[in-house]
Amino acid sequence: MRPRHWVRVVVCVVVSTVVAACGAGGAANRTADGRTELTVATFNEFGYEELFREYEAAHPDVKITPRKTGQGAPHHQNLFTKLGAGSGLADVEAVEEGYLSQVMARSDQFHDLLEIGPKAVTPDRWLRWKVEAATTRNGRLIGYGTDIGPLALCYRKDLFAEAGLPSEPDDVRQLFATWDSYFAAGDRFVAAVSGVAWFDSAAQIFNAMHNQHDVGYFDTSDTLVVESNPDIRNDWNAVTNAVARGQSAKLTAFSNEWNTGFKLGRFATTTCPSWMLGVIETQAGPENAGKWAVTDAFPDGGGNWGGSYLTVPKQSRNAGKAAELAAWLTAPEQQIKAFQARGTFPSQIDALENRALLEQVNTYFDNVKAGALFAAQVQKVKAAQHKGPADGQIQEDAFGPALRSVEQGKNANDAWGTAVKEAKKIAG
C-alpha cells in the first residue's frame, strides 16, 4: 500500500528437487510425511489463502506453509537485509511497486523469469506498463505482475447532498474532471458543511497527483529531480493551498484516527485505488453502507497507485518450481479469484476482460459494478511512472512528514525546503 500500508502479499516457496541449472541453494524442505514444503511469506492480503489450498489439491506432493507480516515495510526491510547477507530468503518473494526500484538495482540477485519460468507464460499476458516496470534494461524479467491500483475517487453521497453538490456518480464526474475543479468543489463544500473536511489527508492527495506524472522524484537515469521537476512543486502548492483553505481533515492515512474518520464521517472524499473499496467498507462499517459511492472519474485523467510482483531470488532452493507456483498464482484465473476474495485488481489482460470481473457488483457502494468501473480506469493508464532508488522511502519519510507538518501549521515554503532536504539525504 502507498504510503506502504496498502494490501499486499509476499509469496515464498521452497520446493523439493534441487535444479542446479536454476542456481539452487541447497536441499529442499520436506514435511514429516515426505511432501515438499512450500513456504509462503506474506505481508497483508492478496486473497491467496484459498488458492494455496487449491494448489495443494492439484499437487498432493506439496505442502504450502503461509507466513504473514502485518505491513509491507517490515517485509521489505527483511528482504533487503537478507539479500545483503546472501541467505535467508524464501524461494519466491513479492515486491510492492514502491520498493521495486531497489530490487531492480539488485536485479543480478534475482532470476530472469523468462528463462526459468514456464515457457507458455509470456509478457504479453500482462498490461504492457506492468511488465515494463519489472524488466531490466537488458531485457530480464524480474517479477510476475500481481495486482494493480487503478485510480478513482470515492465520496460521501449524503454529505455532498448536504452541501448542495451533485451526489449521483454520473453527475459528480464534472466535479472531478480536473484537480482545479476538484479543489474548487472543496471550497464550496467546506463553506456549506461545518465540521467536515473535503479530503482526509494532504499526503494521500499529493501522492495520487504525483503518481500521474511521467516523471516523478527521479528521472529515468535515476537522478533525483525533486527541485527541477515543476510538476512536483505545482502539486505541492495546490495541496498545501487547499490545506490552508480548510479542506484537509489532517488525518494520517491508515492511522487509528483515519480509520475512525471513515466511521464518523469526518471527510467527504478520498482517493480510491481499487483496493481502497475494501478498506472503506471495513473502516466505515455497516452503518455507513450506501453512503459511500465511487465514480469512474479521476482528476486530470487516470493513474495507478499500488501493485506488486512475485520474484524468485537466486537464493531459491528450487527456482524452477518456485517460478511455476508464481506463474500459477498470477495467471488470469487466479487473479480473478484473488479479486473476488480480497479485491486485489488484476493486471493480466485476459482477467480484465473476464465477465466475472466486469459483472462484479459492490453492494456496499450502492451496487456499483466495481469491476467494470476500474477496468475502464485501467485503460486511462498509458505507462507506469519510473520509480527511482528509494522512491517509496522519499514518499514516506520526506514528503509525507512535510505535508503533515503543513497540516499542523508549519509554513508551506519552509516545509517544502525540509522535504527537499530530506529527499536528498535519502537519495544519497
TrEMBL record:
Keywords: Signal. It comes from the Bacteria. InterPro entries: Bact_solute-bd_prot1 (IPR050490), SBP (IPR006059). This is Cellobiose-binding protein. The keyword Ribosomal protein does not apply. Residues 1-20 form the signal peptide. Pfam families: SBP_bac_8.
